[in-house]
Amino acid sequence: MADLQLKTVEKVYGSGFKAVHGIDLTVEDGEFMVLVGPSGCAKSTTLRMIAGLETVTGGEIRIGDTVVNDLVPGKRGIAMVFQNYALYPHMKVRRNLSFGLKLKREPQQKIDRATNEVSGILEIEELLDRLPKQLSGGQAQRVAVGRALIKSPEVFLFDEPLSNLDAKLRASMRIRITDLHKRLRDEGRPATVIYVTHDQVEAMTMGDRICVMKDGHIMQVADPVTLYERPANAFVAGFIGMPEMNLAPAELSADGAPVITLAGQTIRIGAGLAERLTRSDGPVTFGIRPQHVEVVPPGTADALTGTIHNIEFMGHEVNLHLTIGNTNFIAVVPNDKFDHSMKRGDHAALRPNGARVHLFDPSSDQNISLGH
Fold first, then answer.
1. What is the DSSP string of 145-199?
2. Domain locations in the chain?
3. Which uninterrupted H or E stretch holds 200?
4. Angle, in degrees to the nearest 10, between helices 108-121 and 137-149
5. Three-state DSSP class for residue 235
6. pLDDT, tens only, 94-108
7. CATH fold of 244-360
8. The whole model's pTM is what?
9. Which of 169, 220, 251, 184 is nearest to 36 (CA)?
């Protein structure tokens, strides 16, 4: 396999629209890298440039030691799995898997051995004599993965491969793909993977590292734990995590323990935060994850009081929605600790865990609470 490097890569269309703005990204040999972001963030465009399906209008893409900007897709040592599977409808599964090797005029013995190995890894041996129309969505996706795997490419590219599956199948296929990646790594055949998705659950559960994109820019590249615990900016903080982080305009002043004024309410949020701040006063965007607040009675010290406007029973937990000022705050409360007598229109308060508070500069969106 090989590492992958993007150096100041740009994509400008004929209309003058700039879709990708000089991004830099390194994917290590054998790494599972996920590109994630909202629709229109250019993650698929970036993947298509790596694949050679879109031209690069600036910068350099390197696979291993080779600059591939001007190479056709077939010469790049990549294999791609698409959202729509792209199986040949008139070919049975066996031929779909082996077709790429036949085009290379590989010996039939090698083709048969590779087909049997790949079908065994993906547990699709019983499907080899079926046509694509006879497959379920999950089966078709496994065949598509097998068709890529059989080529032993330098880099695997996945473009929203699970988006057409139902929730249960998506969860199953997530596990299959990550297990396959780990198995190849354990066998000394590490697979370098670039995986595009808009689904943060896929990103957080599959990626060794995650590249979060917005409007053709890279916002942060990090492992899942770092993205969740130490978001570099307000966009990443709001995009990563379910439910999304509570974010609200506030005013910061530091007199010992930092003090936040939000919607006319003032709270102290822990002396430990002062050591992490890169400035001590002025306007900020206050951030706290719904899992990191405690629901307390109105009037409790260092808590923000609001009005309940929705209660979502999720089974093992409850999402409590409060309006505080002009902002909707969410608290995630374990079901066995939730006061089920609460109802819409009641007042309640949220006390943030001071060690889990994030503060962002409203002009730059950068996290000013990560330390110097």
1. HHHHHTT--SEEEEESTTTTS-HHHHHHHHHHHHHHHHHHHHTT---EEEEEES-
2. 4-235, 244-360
3. helix 200-206
4. 130
5. helix
6. 999 999 888 888 999
7. OB fold (Dihydrolipoamide Acetyltransferase, E2P) (2.40.50)
8. 0.91
9. 220
CA atoms of 15 and 12, how far apart (whole Å): 8
Winning range, highest mean pLDDT, from 153-162, 188-197, 252-261, 324-333: 324-333
Tokens of 263: 């919607």
**Maximum CA extent, the chain:** 78
| Cβ proximity of 79 and 146 under 8 Å | no
**Angle at CA 29, nearest 5°, toward 28 and 30?**
105
Residue 186, judged by CB atoms within 10 A of its CB (0-12, 13-18, 19+), counts as exposed
Return the CATH superfamily for domain 4-235: P-loop containing nucleotide triphosphate hydrolases (3.40.50.300)
Bridge partners of residue 36, in order along the sequence: 197, 212
For residue 189, the model assigns a pLDDT of: 81
Q: How far is CA 163 from CA 84, 167, 261, 284, in A?
A: 9, 9, 42, 37
First-to-last alpha carbon distance for the chain, in angstroms, is: 38
SS3 75: helix
- 3-state DSSP assignment of residue 269: coil
Give the β-pairing of 66-67 and 58-63. Answer: antiparallel
